[in-house]
Amino acid sequence: MLLIPCPFCGERAEIEFVAGGEAVTRPENPAVLDDAVFTDYLYNRDNRRGALREQWWHAHGCRRWLVVERDTQSNEILSVRDSESAG
Ligand SMILES: [Zn+2]
After folding, report:
1. Ligand 1 centroid distance, CA of 43 (Å)
2. Domain harbouring 38, CATH code
3. Residue 67 Cα, ligand 1 centroid: separation in angstroms?
């Protein structure tokens, strides 16, 4: 079982969370991007093995969105922070 250390609630089981996929940085002004760049932002993800930044929503806890850096091969949690905090 994957345990995620929520910065607000402490260590909690994965079943309390909803996975939001790979964390991507939203373009500052999507209206000026060409279609290929915008399509890449919307649909394409690295899905790589190893350290990956993901979004997780603590639906059955503090209801905050978190950015979790997780090793996708070992499931080790490398870091967790609130999605609205800097960094
Ligand atoms: Zn929480």
Report:
1. 28
2. 3.30.2270.10
3. 12
pLDDT tens, residue by residue, 26-69? 888 888 989 999 999 999 998 889 999 999 999 999 999 999 99
Q: How far is the CA of 36 from the centre of ligand 1 (A)?
A: 36
Containing domain of residue 22, as a range? 3-82
Neighbours of 74 (CB within 10 A): 11
Give the list of residues 6+ apart from residue 58 with CB closer than 8 angstroms, or none: 4, 6, 8, 9, 12, 16, 17, 64, 65, 66
**pTM attached to this predicted model:** 0.85
**pLDDT (tens digit, 9 = 90+) per residue, 58-73?**
999 999 999 999 999 9
Structure-token match 């309390």, residue found: 16
Is residue 87 a part of any domain in this protein?
no
Domains in the chain, number: 1
d(CA 28, CA 83) in angstroms, rounded, equals 17
